[in-house]
């Protein structure tokens, strides 16, 4: 075997490779993320890693037959939705997220459901001992004998076990603890993580095993983040959420077998993760009744409308430069909307501090919430109380016009379902929204129209 050792520098954020150290990564613009790693360019022993690749020539597209069993449901509706309708056999799914967000818990629940359906499932952990996993499993519920556990970090051993056991689904928790002997750098380094994923990819495709990989998102340190392997896997899911709030959001960032717009909403309970069937109701919990500076808007997350409360607080600034803060939405967008209010509506905000918040810790960047942000700011600045049965959505352009948004009818229907009486929406959506008999639909062509509505419908 020809061995030739050299060192290169990798960005731990995005995996950018460089022969010398750099302060800022040219790839992802992160600072101080380069770490030196030894890579040995070993001529791999014959056949290694290639054993599963079947040699075949080109095939006619029309000759490829699809089998019936395309997708397997996990019995967790929210996860199936994000995956695009269930697990595609032989796919490699990366589940990323901050440590402690609930990745292991979710995947253990998936294992349980698949085992109950009669699949052979193997949970491989490099982080926790068998007893620790058992303790977690006790909290989640009953498990049957189709689920096996393994504590292992050496990928060659794992490959051997998978060849013997031939499971249908495998969970690798986490990719940052796995290592391959032929790579000389430490587990968690960019080259290890990449090589490990490569091997898992070959196993998934060659043996037709569905593999879930856990990847911790790391802020700093010598552990490579999941972004370095996003391009290798079939599906990338990120688990987000405020660690202080109990709900968690599963979002697809890449999906070779489905849409990337869908989200799944979960709540962390003491018995594991529960699906949240109606996120709007969940998000609006504990909303203040009839107070100024608050209005509900609707954002589409994939095919699902979610209602959120937008809050604004505008007060006199005690400093020369007013303070502006946006939590849960785009800061620049909020500044832009305030500039439109200043210039086009004539509301003086230049000497005011303004704080905008999406209640519940949700992150929403869809322009459809523009109108609600603007109305919340006006409501707080002018102390106009907007009744809590009013919902508003619409995009705002730089000349103060209220622009069309997609799926207006669905947003109105969601508001109706949750007991709202009035919806302020763009004039251009008039044709796309059917006649809702028992809802008051107020159409606004310019932002001024919407402001005059909220002045009129005071409680
Ligand atoms: P975990 O799945 O270990 O996170 P990750 O694998 O992403 O690092 O989740 C750990 C957190 O979840 C921990 O803070 C405790 C909490 N938790 C519950 O609240 N209820 C439960 O039933 C379980 C199993 C965990
Ligand atoms: Mg874990």
From TrEMBL:
A motif (RadA KNRFG motif) lies at residues 254-258. Keywords: ATP-binding, DNA damage, DNA repair, DNA-binding, Hydrolase, Metal-binding, Nucleotide-binding, Stress response, Zinc, Zinc-finger. ATP binds at residues 97-104. Pfam families: AAA_25, ChlI, Zn_ribbon_LapB. InterPro entries: AAA+_ATPase (IPR003593), DNA_repair_RadA (IPR004504), P-loop_NTPase (IPR027417), RecA_ATP-bd (IPR020588), Ribosomal_Su5_D2-typ_SF (IPR020568), Ribsml_uS5_D2-typ_fold_subgr (IPR014721), Rubredoxin_2 (IPR041166). One of its GO terms (molecular function) is ATP-dependent DNA damage sensor activity. One of its GO terms (cellular component) is cytosol. Residues 68-217 form the RecA family profile domain. Residues 353-459 are annotated as: Lon-protease-like. GO terms for biological process: recombinational repair. The middle region has homology to RecA with ATPase motifs including the RadA KNRFG motif, while the C-terminus is homologous to Lon protease. NCBIfam families: sms. PANTHER family: DNA REPAIR PROTEIN RADA (PTHR32472), DNA REPAIR PROTEIN RADA-LIKE PROTEIN (PTHR32472:SF10). Belongs to the RecA family. RadA subfamily. Plays a role in repairing double-strand DNA breaks, probably involving stabilizing or processing branched DNA or blocked replication forks. DNA-dependent ATPase involved in processing of recombination intermediates, plays a role in repairing DNA breaks. Stimulates the branch migration of RecA-mediated strand transfer reactions, allowing the 3' invading strand to extend heteroduplex DNA faster. Binds ssDNA in the presence of ADP but not other nucleotides, has ATPase activity that is stimulated by ssDNA and various branched DNA structures, but inhibited by SSB. Does not have RecA's homology-searching function. HAMAP family: RadA_bact (MF_01498). This is DNA repair protein RadA. It comes from Candidatus Blautia faecigallinarum.
């Amino acid at each position: 075997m020809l061995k030739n050792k050299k060192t290169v520098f990798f960005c731990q954020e995005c995996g950018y490779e460089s022969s010398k150290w750099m302060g800022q990564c040219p790839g992802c613009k992160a600072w101080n993320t380069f770490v030196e790693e030894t890579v040995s360019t070993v001529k791999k022993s014959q056949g290694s890693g290639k054993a599963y690749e079947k040699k075949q020539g080109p095939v006619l597209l029309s000759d490829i037959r699809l089998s019936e069993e395309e997708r397997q449901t996990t019995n967790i509706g929210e996860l199936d939705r994000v995956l695009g309708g269930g697990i595609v056999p032989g796919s490699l799914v990366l589940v990323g997220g901050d440590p402690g967000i609930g990745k292991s818990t979710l995947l253990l629940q998936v294992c349980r459901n698949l085992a109950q359906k009669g699949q052979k499932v193997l949970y491989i952990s490099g982080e926790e001992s068998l007893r620790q996993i058992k303790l977690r499993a006790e909290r989640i519920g009953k498990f049957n004998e189709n689920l096996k556990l393994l504590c292992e970090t050496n990928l060659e051993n794992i490959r051997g076990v998978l060849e013997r056991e031939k499971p249908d689904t495998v969970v690798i928790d986490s990719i940052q603890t796995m290592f391959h002997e032929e790579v000389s750098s430490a587990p968690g380094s960019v080259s290890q993580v990449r090589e490990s994923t490569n091997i898992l990819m070959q196993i998934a495709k060659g043996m037709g095993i569905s593999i879930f990989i856990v990847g911790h998102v790391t802020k700093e340190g010598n552990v490579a983040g999941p972004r370095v392997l996003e391009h290798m896997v079939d599906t990338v899911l990120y688990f987000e959420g405020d660690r202080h709030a109990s709900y968690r959001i599963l979002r697809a960032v890449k999906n070779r077998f489905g849409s990337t717009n869908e989200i799944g909403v979960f709540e962390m309970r003491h018995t594991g993760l529960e699906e949240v069937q109606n996120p709007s109701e969940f998000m609006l919990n504990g909303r203040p009744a009839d107070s100024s500076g608050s209005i509900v808007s609707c954002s589409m997350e994939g095919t699902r409308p979610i209602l959120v409360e937008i809050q604004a607080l505008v007060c006199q600034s005690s400093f020369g430069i007013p303070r502006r803060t946006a939590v849960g939405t785009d800061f620049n967008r909020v500044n832009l909307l305030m500039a439109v209010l200043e210039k086009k509506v004539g509301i003086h905000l230049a000497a005011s501090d303004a704080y905008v918040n999406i209640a519940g810790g949700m992150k929403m960047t869809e322009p459809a919430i523009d109108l609600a942000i603007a109305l919340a700011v006006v409501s707080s600045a002018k102390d106009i109380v907007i009744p809590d049965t009013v919902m508003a959505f619409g995009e705002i352009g730089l000349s103060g016009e209220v622009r069309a948004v997609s799926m207006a009818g669905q947003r109105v229907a969601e508001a109706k379902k949750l007991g709202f009486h009035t919806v302020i929406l763009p004039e251009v959506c008039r044709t796309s929204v059917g006649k809702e008999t028992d809802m008051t639909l107020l159409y606004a062509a310019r932002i001024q129209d919407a402001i005059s509505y909220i002045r009129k419908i005071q409680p």
